[in-house]
Specification:
The protein is α+β, with helices and mostly antiparallel strands. Helices cover 39% and strands 21% of the residues. A hairpin with a 5-residue loop joins strand 17 and strand 18. Helix 13 crosses helix 15 and helix 15 packs across helix 16.
Length: 483
């Protein structure tokens, strides 16, 4: 077996995982986990990118200790859309701005005055979200930092640059910027030109599996690794890596990648760029081996994470057990509503949304938790049904991967809401996808179907069968539709 290090950065924590891969198995273990705590500065909300890089180095040191100092490769994935700006000498110009920062408020409308929203979607296939990289760039263009920028690197590419000294822009993550044409799998030069965006700011595009350099001598010295250690471009948007690790058989499946966000949709061979798709707020992001991730972004377990933080970090297991005893579907909220995007006062905001829609107001932590989980399952149902209709792609099963697989109540509610079996597994799906792309580049694995067969043989899976009919879920959706 060979050992690969997956650097996997989520919006609330980072981890370095070690994947040991052979021709017929993949084993994953955690070398190091560290918090990802954004910092609110006078100028706005920022990522503490230096602390994250320190966590990466600590993780590589721990991974090397697990593997006798030898790693076959390293790969980096992270959340999407955010970036760091470098000056002409390659030095970072300030901490990257957090996508939840308020700087993009009202910016989309200014962009649409030049490229109308319908034209933008037809060209790039990316759903509207106020924090899309395109809107961040429009908000930043008059800043002093932007005036001095010689290079823009998305978050995983920035960390890869610090590890190797080499610059590139990985394609699956680039596809979230709203500056890539999903049909050509290259930049949308027309959109960039009309908006005055210099694509020369971006480093050359890389594909998953491309070489991304080797660890610098200083990194080897700090981590104790024996060089040379190659760094491989993986599907560096964590959702792209997670979808690669969906343990599916065949094509008639939907997936839900659960964590801070829920990403629910289909894997397709071509984008869906219709006006109806745009109105339904589906995105077409690029995946492994020429695939398209046709999905909708849902607020996800962020809602519960923020509530738990507000409640002083109670025992989550006990809270979920109590929530399971609360009557179902008493109150639901729209889990895709921008109202819940910003941090702070989440229990009060959820209660207020229920009050405004004339539903019973959840008051206890268990009641609010049940409201959140019912609302997420309802949003999962809507996304799976809408995706099938818009793409004309029926499914027989839903695969749920990521951190939400630990939440049995959410898994069961999703099966109930969708009226389809849910197969939950691959809790660390992004890290698994990261490792498998590295292993394939190293000659240890085959095509995407072969990667998934390897996962099915190696990962424990739990099947949830839907209970009862979907009538109560249709009724709950009707309540939201008449808000």
């Amino acid at each position: 077996m060979k050992s690969y290090a997956a650097v996997d950065l989520g919006a609330s924590s980072g981890r370095v995982m070690v994947g040991r891969v052979s021709a017929d198995s993949v084993e994953l273990s955690e070398a190091h986990r560290f918090p990802n705590r954004p910092v609110r500065l006078p100028e706005g909300l920022r990522w503490d990118i230096l602390a994250l890089y320190g966590g990466v180095l600590d993780g590589l040191r721990a991974a090397g200790a697990d593997c006798g100092g030898r790693l076959a490769s390293v790969g980096v994935d992270s959340w999407a859309v955010d970036y760091g700006l470098l000056d002409a000498d390659g030095a970072l110009l300030g901490n990257p701005v957090h996508y939840r920062d308020a700087r993009t408020e009202g910016v989309a409308e200014k962009v649409w005055a030049t490229v109308p929203a319908a034209e933008l979607y037809a060209a790039t296939g990316v759903q509207y979200a106020p924090f899309n990289t395109l809107y961040q760039l429009a908000a930043a263009r008059d800043s002093d930092q932007f005036a001095h920028a010689g290079r823009l690197l998305l978050i995983p590419d920035l960390l890869t640059y610090w590890l190797t000294g080499e610059q590139g822009t990985e394609l699956t993550n680039a596809s979230t910027t709203q500056l890539v044409d999903p049909r050509t799998r290259d930049w949308s030069y027309e959109v960039a030109g009309r908006l005055g965006i210099d694509l020369g700011l971006f480093a050359p595009l890389r594909r998953p599996g491309d070489p991304a350099g080797t660890l610098r001598p200083q990194v080897l010295a700090e981590t104790g690794l024996t060089g040379p250690v190659p760094v491989t471009a993986v599907a560096s948007h964590d959702t792209a890596s997670a979808v690669a690790a969906v343990p599916a058989d065949g094509e008639r499946f939907a997936y839900i990648c659960t964590g801070t966000w829920s990403l629910a949709g289909l894997e397709l061979s071509a984008p869906v760029l219709t006006e109806e798709s745009r109105a339904a707020n589906f995105t077409n992001e690029l995946g492994l081996d020429g695939t398209v991730r046709y999905l909708r972004n849902i607020m996800g377990l962020w809602l519960l994470q923020e509530c738990v933080r507000a409640w002083g970090e109670p025992d989550l297991g006990a809270l979920l057990r109590e929530a399971a005893t609360v009557p179902p579907l008493r109150s639901v909220v729209d889990a895709g509503d921008e109202e819940f995007l910003a941090p702070g006062r989440m229990p009060e905001r959820i209660a207020g949304a229920c009050r405004a829609s004339g539903q019973p107001v959840p008051r206890t932590p268990a009641e609010i938790t049940r409201c959140i989980l019912d609302s997420l399952a309802l949003a999962h149902r809507r996304a799976v049904l809408d995706a099938q209709r818009l793409a004309d792609h029926p499914v027989d099963v839903v695969y749920l991967v990521g951190g939400g697989t630990r939440n049995a109540l959410l898994c069961q509610l999703t099966a109930d809401a969708c009226g389809l079996p849910v197969v939950a597994g691959a809790t660390e799906a992004a890290a698994l996808g990261n490792v498998l792309v590295q292993a394939r580049a190293d000659g240890l694995a085959g095509d995407l179907a072969a990667l998934r067969r390897l996962l099915v043989r190696s990962q424990p899976l739990t099947r949830y069968t839907p209970r009862g009919g979907t009538g109560p879920w249709r009724a709950a959706q009707a309540r939201l539709a008449t808000r």
